[in-house]
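Let's practice the habit of predicting before peeking. Look at the sequence and jot down your guess about where helices and strands might fall. Then scroll down.
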Amino acid sequence: MMNPNLNVKSLRQRFSRDDRVRVDNLLQPEVIEQVAGEIEQAPFELVYVLDGKMQTTSKDRMDAMSVTQKKKINQTIREQAAAGVGFLYGSCHLGAGRPQNIGSKMARLFDEFIASPQMIEFVQGVTGDKSINRVSGHYTRYQPGHFLTRHRDEVQQEHRRFAYVLSFTPEWHPDWGGLLQFYEEDGTPRDAWAPRFNSLTLFDIRHIHAVTYVTPFARKPRLSLTGWFMATPFQ
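Done guessing? Here is the structure:
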C-alpha cells in the first residue's frame, strides 16, 4: 500500500527541525482513491463536548431530536467554543465495537497498513522514537460549522507520542477553513496546514494545535483518518 519511493532519512531530517512533518503521496494512488470513495458513505456519528463530557450522537438520534433540543445543544457548543473549549465533527471510530457497516477498504487500510509493523517501523524511522508499538485511529468528517478548538493531545494513560492525519480530500481550498493550525505557547498562531490529498501529517503531541472552523461555503467535507502512535497498549 505504501509509496515505495518515500525517503525515510530525508523525512527524519525534516521532522527533527520542529517535531512535525508532512509526508506527501503516502499511499499508492489506487489505494487512496478506493478508500476515499468509501469514506463518503461511512457511518459517521457526531461527536462534541457538552457540559464537560464528550457526547456521541448517531444521525438517527439527531434526526429524532426536536428543533428546540437541537437549538439548545448547538447554542451550548457555540458558547463553549467561544471560550476555547470543545469540538464538533463527524467520527467513525476503528477501535472495539466499530460500526459493522464500515467500508471494507476503510477497515483494511487501518488494520493492515496503519496498524501494521511496516507502518510502525516507518514512523519510528521518521520520528526517531523506537518505543512506538501501537496506534489508534478514527475517520473524521468536518462539514460546515465544524471545528476543533486549541489543545494538546497529551493523555497520560494512553501514552501517546505522535498524532497523525491522513487526508482524503482533494482540491481543498484554504478559504474554506478546516486548517490544521499550530500555536505558540502563549496562544499566538504559527503556521497552518491545509488538507492535501494523500498526505500524512505527523507531529509530536506536545504541539498546541486546532482545526479551524469550516466555513458555510465549503463545497465538500474535510475527510481524514486520524489518531495517535503510542508507546504502550491502552490501559
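How did you do? Residues 8-230 form a domain with the Jelly Rolls fold (CATH 2.60.120.620).
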